[in-house]
TrEMBL record:
<protein>
    <submittedName>
        <fullName>Uncharacterized protein</fullName>
    </submittedName>
</protein>
Amino acid sequence: MLKRRRFKQTTTLNERLADAAARCREEARTLTPGRRRDMLLRQARQDETAMQIDAWLRSPGLRAPT
């Protein structure tokens, strides 16, 4: 049986998503309009949406159903 490799994250999910979105936007800024640029901008938007969802899920206003 294979043993699962564990990896301890040193940064928060929010920080990693923000870094990825910034890298995608920066790379897209250097490219001419085209498929690769569109894909990078789409990934940046997805990362930003994931950040918003994570913030929403961690908000103190959410309560478990009782």
